[in-house]
Design a protein that fits this description.
The complex is a heterodimer of chains A (396) and B (293). Chain A has 396 residues and is of the alpha/beta class. Chain A has helices at residues 3-27, 43-55, 57-60, 79-91, 104-117, 146-160, 174-189, 208-217, 229-241, 255-261, 283-296, 302-320, 328-336, 391-394, and strands at 30-36, 68-74, 97-99, 121-123, 139-141, 165-171, 193-200, 221-225, 249-250, 269-272, 340-341, 348-349, 359-369, 374-384. Chain B is globular and about 60 Å long. Classes of the chains: A alpha/beta (396), B mainly alpha (293).
């Protein structure tokens, strides 16, 4: 073989190697770090979220598209653990973006890391307003902020009965305080009266006496905002003492909550962002509900839907700018510029300059509850701009 | 007196009795174990929760009548405690300063059970509600009270009375009290101290299990209740005097009523730490507890 021949072979081999390398690179999946609550007090929410996320896998990874791979890590419902996992995913696994938390506490811890280290962070389910405080650049929140939920309740009540009196009873958790702050601010603006206002400390288990106080105050509506099991106890004790179901407005209702409120709660209202009983589910939304029900023996709620939607949103951002798959800044810009809809309900998704979403809420009325699920009827829908009330000043 | 005032007054009284009887049951269970084998059972909250969750599984998942589920769970506490006694507890009977060893041991059990609950029940739901034993509502004047809650309250009170009678009048109860007071003297009088240790551990845990089941009938349960109950039971035992069954019984009732009354005259937040504040004040003047021997 001549020198030229050898050189030609070497060149051809080199080109082949580069091409092979290039092909391998193109086939590398896009990794998204999904840090969520698989154990600890919030385990139900994290595992439910992952169940929703997994149902999106087939749709977001059709043949011919670069695969998106979610690297799921348990944060044990601990903020410090969430940050450690985020750092590990960022530095070791070189993920493109972070996602996953369903608790405001763990999400806030990851928020600090993401903003400081310029890692795009798509938060599926966490409602504390400060997650998108002014100046946030890399964080995008799918769920409306909790103070806004309070705004939505006030608008719902004002429509049902102008000038109504609302009894506000809530647990002393950050999320509940935020909802209460939004409701109190918005109620005053809407000409509604809050009386009485009763706060329960964390770990409470009895509300009989306070239910009696609520009854004595003769409110038009009662907004009970409990945490975990106490939410159920509070609801039961209000109904036990004689509060009518039509007077009860729960700010939020996931499937297990509604099922545990039970048949006796038929007639009461709850706020939500997605529900299997919505009037206008898209065909994909209906498929999602059926697939989730088949796998988990219960219909999904907004919690699972947001995790499913998060996967689709990431796919859309990558479809919009394929170069974003290897560049965090481009990915951040692609998400920030999205103008899309939830594939399950058709609700618009756009983000403001802080990463807060154009917000919305449904109010459902429970019709019936049985062992397998429940029936509810959509009664009210509202959309609003995240800063229609001073959310970032109301809740620090 | 207006109907509102009567309703608030009766709700305060019934809440005091409900919480008081449950608190007393759990604290008596903890103090029986502490008084006999010097075990400060840090896992009492997890045992309490275990009972509530088992009862939920038996009634909701397996479809047993709630009363049958309750009896089954309390029955299961016997082999459960016996097994723990054989595998772990009896190994420390002759260890000097064994209360420290027991505390560490039960902290370990707490961790294990916490982990198990987290990956099982914690994944299945965020709250657990037992079906009622009895349906319907009873009116005490203008005050409506759920029959289920009334039943839980009565059963708890009857259990406390039975426990008191057992410890006061039965041969086993007298032997147990003898061991509480002076185990060497009890042994010299022919009491099988080790058998009493074993029985105390089984009885104490059985009472805690009963408390957990009754609590789950009256209230919805989530995994955080274990911690709340554990702290409350220890506080009651310390104020009542470690090892004093009467102290646990009385202080448990006082705690229940304190929580109900303070929550109406101040706020539920102040009520939640009022009894812990009271504990600190009492310990300043009676470091060994109100009913310490």
């Amino acid at each position: 073989m001549t020198r030229n021949g050898l050189g030609g072979c070497a060149l051809a081999a080199g080109v082949a190697l580069v091409l092979m390398g290039g092909t391998a690179l193109a086939e590398d999946p896009v990794k998204i770090g999904f840090v969520t609550e698989l154990t600890g007090p919030w385990a139900f929410f994290g595992t439910s979220c992952v169940a929703g996320l997994k149902l999106a896998d087939a749709q977001i990874n059709p043949p011919g598209k670069r695969r998106i791979e979610f690297v799921t890590i348990d944060n044990q419902t601990q903020p410090a653990q969430a940050v450690a996992a985020a750092r590990n995913l960022d530095v070791q696994s070189k993920v493109l973006a972070l996602s996953g938390p369903t608790s405001s506490d763990t999400a806030l811890a990851m928020y600090g890391y993401a903003e400081q280290n310029k890692v795009p962070f798509v938060v599926p389910v966490a409602a504390f307003p400060q997650l998108t405080k002014p100046g946030s650049r890399y964080t995008f929140r799918i769920e409306p902020d909790a103070a806004g939920w309070g705004y939505a309740i006030a608008q719902f009540v004002a429509k049902k009965k102008p000038g109504a009196k609302i009894a506000l009873v809530y647990s002393d958790f950050a999320l509940m305080r935020a909802i209460a702050a939004g409701l109190k601010y918005s109620a005053a603006k809407a000409g509604l009266k809050i009386e009485p206002e009763i706060v329960f400390p964390q770990g409470s288990n009895d509300a009989t006496v306070q239910a009696a106080q609520v009854l004595a105050a003769a409110p038009d509506f009662v907004v009970p905002i409990g945490a975990g099991a106490f939410d159920n106890t509070l609801t039961n004790q209000l109904l036990d003492i004689g509060i009518k179901t039509e007077q009860v407005i729960h700010p939020f209702g996931i499937t297990t909550q509604v099922k545990n409120w039970g048949k006796r709660s038929a007639g009461s209202y709850y706020g939500t962002f997605f529900d299997s009983n919505l009037d206008e589910l898209t065909p994909e939304g209906k498929s999602f509900v059926e697939a989730f029900r088949a796998q988990n023996d219960r219909p999904p709620s907004y919690l699972e839907n947001y995790c499913y939607v998060t996967a689709h949103l990431i796919r859309e951002a990558l479809d919009k700018d394929p170069a974003a798959a290897d560049d965090r800044e481009k990915f951040r810009d692609a998400v920030a510029g999205l103008n899309t809809k939830e594939t399950t309900s058709g609700i618009p998704i756009t983000f403001d300059k802080n990463g807060a979403r154009k917000e919305y809420m449904y109010f459902m009325q429970i019709q019936d509850v049985d062992a397998k699920g429940y029936k509810a009827k959509q009664q009210f829908y509202i959309e609003w701009d995240p800063e229609v009330i001073p959310v970032y000043d109301l809740v620090k | 007196m207006s109907n509102s005032t009567i309703i608030i007054a009766l709700s305060t009284i019934t809440t005091g009795i409900m919480l008081g009887t449950i608190f007393s049951l759990v604290a008596v269970g903890v103090t029986i174990v502490y008084g006999s084998i010097w075990m400060p059972n840090a896992a009492n909250g997890q045992f309490f929760l275990l009972a509530a969750l088992f009862a939920w599984s038996a009634s909701v998942s397996w479809g047993l009548h709630p009363a049958v589920a309750a009896l089954l769970v309390i029955g299961i506490s016997v082999p459960f405690s016996w097994l723990l006694e054989i595998l772990l507890v009896r190994r420390f009977y002759d260890v000097p300063n064994r209360n420290i060893s027991y505390f560490v041991l039960t902290l370990g059990i707490t961790q294990v059970l916490t982990g198990i609950f987290s990956v099982t029940y914690g994944v299945w739901s965020d709250q657990f509600q037992l079906p009622p034993i009895v349906k319907g509502v009873t009116f005490l004047g203008p005050f409506p009270i759920a029959n289920n809650r009334l039943a839980a309250m009565l059963i708890a009170a009857l259990l406390l009375a039975a426990l008191f009678a057992l410890l006061r009048y039965h041969r086993y109860g007298r032997a147990l009290r003898a061991v509480f007071q002076n185990r060497e003297a009890a042994a010299l009088r022919g009491v099988d101290v080790r058998a009493i240790y074993r029985m105390s551990f089984i009885l104490g845990n059985g009472v805690i299990f009963a408390g957990g089941v009754l609590f789950a009938f009256a209230y919805a349960v989530d995994l955080t209740v274990a911690w709340t109950m554990s702290v409350t039971a220890f506080a009651i035992m310390i104020i009542g005097g470690p090892g004093s069954v009467v102290g646990a019984l009385i202080v448990g009732m006082v705690f229940g009523f304190t929580q109900a009354i303070v929550s109406i005259f101040a706020s539920p937040t102040i009520a939640a730490f009022s009894y812990l504040g009271a504990m600190l004040v009492i310990l300043l003047f009676r470091p060994s507890g109100l009913f310490a021997r």
